[in-house]
Every structure is written in C-alpha cells, then in structure tokens.
Amino acid sequence: MPTLEINTKKIQHNAKILKNLFAERNISIIGINKVTQGNQIIAKSLVKGGIEYIGDSRIINIKKMKENGVDAQFVLIRVPSQSEIPLIIEYADFSVNSELKTIKLLANEAKKQEKIHNIILMIEMGDCREGIDPSNLEFLVQEILLLKNINLSGIGTNMKCFRGIIPTSKNMKELSNYAKFIKERFGLDLTFVSGGNSANYKWFKSTNNLGAVNNLRIGEAIFLGRETINFDSIPNLYRDIFKLTAEIIELKKRTLNNNGEFVSNAFGEPVQDFQKKDKKREGKIKQNNVRTQALLDIGRQDTALNGLTPIENIKILGGSSDYLVVEVFDKDIHIGQQMNFNLNYEALLRAIASPYIAKKYIDE
Q1: Residue-wise over 309-343: b if at least 16 C-beta within 10 A, else e?
Q2: Distance CA 237, CA 226 (A)
Q3: Were 131 and a residue from 75, 124, 127, 258 both cysteine, which residue would form a disulfide, CB within 3.0 to 4.6 Å?
C-alpha cells in the first residue's frame, strides 16, 4: 500500500520560522490547513509552532479539528454556503464573506446561538475569484455595522489563485487605503487587513512600506517551504516535510513500435509516447525501442501524477486510475522495491484525501 510520510517536527519548525519572520514587522498569519483535510495531528503541530489562527475552506474540517482538541481560533476561508450557516456559527470563530444576504443570515443564526460571529469582508482586486467590488465598500460596511451579533473584524483580498494576479506595492497600497477609509469613515480599527497568501512573501521581503496590511493566510509556504510566484525556496524552511512512497508491482522489458491504431487514452487525452524519436526528429517512434518499465501501486485516483518528482533514478511516463508507469534506469531495481517521490501542492492535496494511501507520522 502506498504511504505518505509526514514529518510533524518539520511542520512545527516551518510554522515557527514564518510566524517569527512576519511578526518582526507586525504581520500575523493564519495557518491554512486545508491541504491536509483539517488533519488534527498536523493542526496541533501548527499550534506548537506558534500559530494562533488556523484557516480551512471546509467547515467540516474545522469541526473535526475543534472536536479533537486543537487549541486555536478557526477561520473559514471559503465564502459560506447558506446550507452550512448553523455549523459555521457553531464551529468557526471567523469567516470570509462577500455576499450581504449571507452575512445577514449569519447574523440571524448567531443571534439564535447567542454568539458573536466575526467576518472578514473580501475585496476583489484583480484575481477575479471571491470578493466585493471596491465601489460597494462604503455601502456594505454601513449595512454590516447595522447588524447585531456580527463583528466586522477585517478586510482581505486574494492573489495568485485564479487569474494569477500577484501582490505588488500598488495593489497592497490600494488595500491599505480601503482600511484607512473604513477607519476614517466609520471609526473602525480592523483586526485583520489580510493581504493574501504565500504569494505575498516576495512583496513582504522587498517592500519598505507594508501600509495597513497586518495579516497573511499562509499554507503552502509552511508545508512545502516555498513561495508561490516562482516557487522559490524560502530560507531556513524544510521542503521535504512530505514524502510519498509506492511499491513496484510489475517490472518488464517493453518493446514499442508503430503497430496498431492509436486513439486517446482512458481519460480521453491524446496519447503521449515517451520513446526516442527518429534521428530526423520527425516524431516517429523508433521501431523496436526497448525500455525497462515498472508499474507502481498508485494511480490518478490517489494523487496528481504530474505533481510527483521522483527521488530515485526513474522517469515518470504517465499513469491510469490504478497504476503509475515509470521507466527505470538502474539495473538493481526489483519487484517489491519502494520508490519515493516529492509532491507539489496539488499532488499533496489529493494524496492526503486518498483513502488508499496510508499516513505515517514522523516526529524527529
């Protein structure tokens, strides 16, 4: 059975380094745990690293973490579904919002549960995902402040997720100006002016003026040790927190030729052939080309195969629902041998969600 090794000590280390780095300039961070499906063991490692706020996009994950004793303030970072409002009020301390109708429903439910619910109003600033039009900011803030049992605790924006718009001095200044406007117009000091996510690292390091931005929502930088614009490593962080291991279950010599009629693969995709081309580079498969090919016990229903990077001397050729197909180059590879892989964010997201991959925690 494939195994995902998770080093909780390294998660704690990365969380502590990033918290202290941002805190030096008065920026708090919300540790985003959504990639782990709200895993409580990992969430507790974040807390040990000094993370006080934990964010997740699924209220059921927040419920799971809270019921398993994770000592943190919880932030729902996906705009609420109306059907989930009772759970959101019960289990989330904060939620991001962009719809006045939904905010009013949150207020009604908070009154029923005799709670005060905190919201972060998201502003759309180019990435075209969630958020209000900035021209509506004054009206919406005014309406929200009239509601009972709702506290407008912050504003935020999203960057580099849908359209790939990156944080810059210009758009971060715009966000700061919105916070300044709210303070001047309504006399409201916001707890959070949340400028984005792990993509904000380079802006943070390069700017001398953070403006009013005092919060970031950090996930990938903690778990993969990198920023998310150029995916460069962040100094002093581990990048090998997660390792995926799969077993060779078939090992054969395969001869490829042009025999047969080719269509798409099982997923309706054009077939790619990874064989050597002819010398004239005309795209023809070299006849009777032989390679050593292995099948591993992991497939597309387990993870994103194109997000895996082999640690051993093998080459990923592709895969199906249940198999990863690789070319092997070392002569001493054998049936039953374990092959190891690093994962990108998507591969990690899907591997943690897969019930067919065992999870192994390492605390060293």
Answers
A1: eeeeebebbbbeeebbbbbbeeeebeeeeebbbbb
A2: 8
A3: 124
CATH (domain of 316)? 2.40.37
Is there a domain that residue 235 lies in? no
Instruction: Return the DSSP state at 239.
Output: S
- Please compute the mean of the pLDDT values over residues 176-181 and round it to a whole number: 98
Full domain range(s) for residue 279: 242-362
Confidence of residue 255 (pLDDT cuts 50, 70, 90): confident
Claim to verify: residue 217 and residue 247 sit in the same structural domain: no
212 alpha carbon, distance to own chain's centre: 25
**Residue for token pair 């999870």:** 359
Start-to-end C-alpha separation, the chain: 23
Count: domains in the chain:
2
8 A C-beta contact, residue 94 and residue 75: yes
Between CA 243 and CA 249 the distance in angstroms is 19
Q: What is the DSSP string of 79-96?
A: PPPGGGHHHHHHH-SEEE
For 148, which DSSP code?
T
72 domain residue, yes or no: yes
Residue 2 lies in a domain: no
Helices (H), the chain: 8-23, 40-48, 59-67, 85-91, 100-112, 137-145, 169-186, 201-206, 220-224, 345-353
For residue 146, what is the domain's CATH number? 3.20.20.10
Helix/strand/coil percentages in the chain, nearest 5:
30, 25, 40
pLDDT for residue 274: 44
1 inside domain: no
Q: Are residues 269 and 219 in the same domain?
A: no
Alpha helices by DSSP H, listed for 207-289, are: 220-224
- Which residue type, as a one-letter code, is found at position 322? D
